[in-house]
Design goal:
By secondary structure, the protein is an alpha/beta fold.
């Protein structure tokens, strides 16, 4: 470590000197911009002079240098750290980043710190922009990617004249793939009609139970299922979850079809693993028992996401309990609203702590069938929408057929599941509550029918249309925050339990409507959930409701 040299001048006199220098500079900066271009507020980069070194950069006011300690204290420095590993042979040796409250002008901070005599230079952290804004996106070479308007809509694919598509009415998938293409550690359980296990577009995508020896007739991992190498068929109670309907294969391909392989089309996450759990028969029918057993299996086998492109109209306590158990185990549950064009969202999508997905068309309007007038269900539980009309699908009977299309919230749910799996690939520590918040904040709002898609949350579009690119950008910046979970809401001394979590960043007003938290203006705050509160955050209540901390 380099020798620390103290200044000859008295520290107090030196600080006074820097204040006088700043007073002079401030007059100049009132009329002339000191720095050109955009830069990060509340931050600068500085290089210490060779004879200056720091004993401790973990404590901003106990660094071992009295002048620096005084500056950091006076300007409320929130932290500083080496820019690199501090190799003495590197030009970045002695270079640190300093962070402050964003309300203090960067010009002021730079002037004062530079005048201290501690640094060779002090400069803003300028914001860079890419030089190739006009350059075309890199699109996958999958043969029929041009039909995947939901991933990339350039308004040229009209579905044989059925739609007049709107450019960019999509989830910005090519942009998202520039950030993340998935990870094999992320396991997605698809509870559906099974899957075409030998489809080339799903080669390498099917989850394998490594603890099970195939074909030996023994329950090697003692999980209660014999030879469950690739999942389980709860319809026939065997280890072959082959699809005899086609719905499950369509969902699996939408989520995880192989990418850039010159055939077929591209799945949202071409690297995650798909756990096939068959709970629907050849008529696309199942029951509560099968669904619940399938969920239990997925939890036991460490799935990270549950995809439900199915549903029913009844609240079933058993199903709700197992889903809440899944969420408590940090498993993210995604489900579709249903396709009756009614204000009745199906279960499990209507359960608390489930990401509830509606469907849109290539023109960004809510999906409504031109033939049957069926369409995407809507209501108070909806969180987000995603494309769900004329989505190209894998075929359960023919590995070379890529002309099949499907519509409805089943497929929009699969798109959201795929994006959620990319979020977990990018940031494995994300909780279900954080994932929901990311989807909410990154959604494209007010892009659909203006009579339905109103500002903020609405019962037709939720928080807006899924945007994979924006969501991944947010996921990259989310860090663990030390929050307290408010678990109870009190209504005239009656305690109502609220599960899950919602991150708040400012003072909010709440009312309790059943088990749903609402803003004072009546709009939904998010999935029915508990409230995460930062230590210094004040929650203001109204009516007869208050939050118990």
């Amino acid at each position: 470590m380099l020798k620390i040299q103290s200044f000859r001048k008295n520290v107090n006199m030196h600080i006074l000197h820097t204040k006088l220098i700043f007073a002079f500079l401030a007059v100049i900066m009132c009329t002339v911009g000191l720095f050109a271009g955009d830069f990060v507020e509340g931050k600068f980069i500085a290089k210490f002079k060779p004879h200056i070194s720091i004993k401790n950069h973990q404590e901003v006011t106990s660094t071992g240098n009295s002048t620096l300690d005084s500056l950091n204290k006076n300007f409320h420095c929130s932290g500083f750290s080496p820019l690199s590993t501090q190799d003495a042979n590197s030009p970045l040796y002695g270079v640190y980043t300093f962070k402050f409250d964003k309300t203090i002008p960067v010009e002021k901070l730079i002037a004062v710190y530079m005048a201290s005599g501690l640094f060779l230079y002090v400069e803003p952290d300028y914001i860079n922009q890419g030089n190739s804004i006009e350059q075309a996106l890199t699109l996958p070479n999958d043969q029929y990617f041009f039909r995947q308007w939901a991933l990339h809509n350039d308004a040229t694919y009209t579905m044989n004249g059925l739609y007049t598509p709107k450019e960019d009415a999509d989830i910005d998938m090519p942009e998202a793939w520039e950030i993340e293409k998935g990870d094999s550690s992320v396991i997605i359980a698809i509870l559906d009609s099974g899957c075409k296990m030998d489809h080339p577009e799903l080669a390498g995508r099917i989850w394998r139970n490594e603890a099970e020896i195939p074909g030996n007739g023994i329950d090697d991992d003692n999980n209660g299922f014999i030879d469950d190498v690739n999942g389980w068929d709860f319809i026939n109670n065997d280890n072959d979850p082959t699809d005899d309907h086609g719905h499950g294969t369509a969902i699996a391909g939408t989520i995880g079809a192989n990418y850039n392989n010159e055939i077929g089309f591209a799945g949202v996450n071409p690297n995650a693993k798909i756990m096939v759990i068959k709970v629907l028969d050849s008529l696309k029918s199942g029951n509560t028992e099968l669904a619940v057993r399938g969920i239990e299996y997925a939890i036991k086998m460490k799935a990270k996401i549950l995809n439900f492109s199915l549903g029913g109209t009844k609240f079933i306590q058993t199903e709700n309990d197992i889903i809440q158990h899944a969420v408590n185990n940090k498993i993210i549950v995604v489900a579709g609203t249903g396709n009756n064009n009614s204000e009745q969202i199906l279960y499990p999508a209507a359960f608390e702590n489930v990401i509830t997905v509606g469907a849109t068309s290539p023109n960004d309007n809510r999906y409504i069938s031109a033939d049957t007038k069926d369409g995407s269900n809507y209501g108070n539980e909806i969180d987000i929408v995603a494309p769900g009309a004329y989505i190209v699908c894998l075929d359960k009977s023919d590995n070379n057929k890529y002309t099949k299309c499907g519509s409805g919230t089943s497929l929009s749910t699969a798109l959201v599941t795929g994006v959620v799996s990319l979020l977990l690939s990018k940031n494995p520590d994300l909780t279900p509550a954080q994932v929901l918040e990311i989807l909410q904040k990154s959604a494209d709002d007010q892009v659909g029918d203006p009579s339905e898609d109103t500002q903020g949350w609405d019962k037709y579009y939720g928080w807006g249309r899924l945007n994979a690119h924006k969501a991944l950008q947010l996921a990259s910046s989310v860090k663990k925050i030390n929050n307290r979970l408010v678990k109870q809401v009190i209504d005239n001394q009656k305690i109502l339990m609220v599960n899950g979590g919602l991150f708040l960043t400012n003072t909010r007003n709440f009312a309790l409507n059943g088990t749903m938290l609402l803003n004072k203006n009546g709009s939904k705050t998010g999935v029915a959930a508990g409230v995460y509160v930062k230590e210094k955050l004040q929650i203001t209540n109204y009516g007869n409701y208050k939050l118990k901390k």
